[in-house]
């Protein structure tokens, strides 16, 4: 057996390989946009209630919790950077409301006094803390619809 293994090792090295498998690359977190409520119900009067009825959510379909610290949700003209936030695994969700409020584990507030998402169409981009695009959610206005599943 030792001689066979030695022969296999010699062949592998001669072919530029190795008997040792490379360590798997760290898998990207199983995060994605879940839903975007881009048109808050009622009149767009910029009240905090109306602003907070505009929101976008993320879902973690992986098994383990993921730290969002340093990740960003980007619109054409605005960027929200996550602080010390962790999204639970197995379907955990985090919702980011446009207006002001007190953050909880699952409900976050952008703190904007203006609407972020365009009713006529827009794209939300989720970026890793390294700045790489991880997911996007794009929509166009459909009559009678105020949101879209991403």
Automatic annotation (TrEMBL):
Lineage top rank: taxon: Bacteria
Signal peptide positions on this chain: 1-27
Domain LTD: from-to ranges: 18-141
Keywords attached to this entry: Signal
Protein name (record): Lamin tail domain-containing protein
UniProt organism field: Actinoplanes oblitus
